[in-house]
Amino acid sequence: MEESATGTVTEPVPVAEDEEEEDKEEEEEEDDLAGRFLRLEREQSALLRALPPFGEPVSHIYHPLDYAWEPHCDFVRRYCRTPKRVLFLGMNPGPFGMAQTGVPFGEAWHVREWLRVVGGVKKPPSEHPKRPVLGLTCRRAERSKPAPHRAAPHPTRPVDGAL
């Protein structure tokens, strides 16, 4: 309890986070590497959506950056904090990879358990009956999936023999 200048006693009122502080944090996030990367992805995604529609035999088009944006952002914010020299070879988003999780490689088990990515995944506007989007709960995997006990080492732990 606080005493005001007039001598009356007032109860502190719970206040939601200061909106100005929240806006400032969002601006700072937009200025960091991950924020700039996400902004570029949004721009590229908008350009892709502006393309003319595909004709037959294409019946369904998935845009995981629309319906799986939350886990995608979590992934980028976790692993795209500093510049890296990276070359992706043979990257295949596949129906049980990025189409499920919004993470550009790996199936849901690795994204959830190994990378520890979190976030909600919505349903796409048009979903193929044989390729439902289940998000991070998807139990299917691409054909090249190693057994969980043979999974790659945790990203924050050194590989055997590494310094």
From TrEMBL:
Query: Which portions of this protein are annotated as coiled-coil regions?
Result: none
Q: Which GO terms describe its molecular function?
A: DNA binding; oxidized pyrimidine nucleobase lesion DNA N-glycosylase activity; single-strand selective uracil DNA N-glycosylase activity
Q: Where is the composition biased (Acidic residues)?
A: 16-32
Taxonomically, which superkingdom?
Answer: Eukaryota
GO terms under biological process: base-excision repair
Does Cell membrane count among this protein's keywords?
no
Read off the InterPro entries from this record: SMUG1 (IPR039134), Uracil-DNA_glycosylase-like_sf (IPR036895)
UniProt region (Disordered), positions on chain: 1-32, 137-163
Alphabetically ordered keywords of this record: DNA damage, DNA repair, DNA-binding, Hydrolase
Tell me if Hydrolase is a UniProt keyword of this record.
Answer: yes
Q: What is the protein name stated in its UniProt record?
A: SMUG1 glycosylase
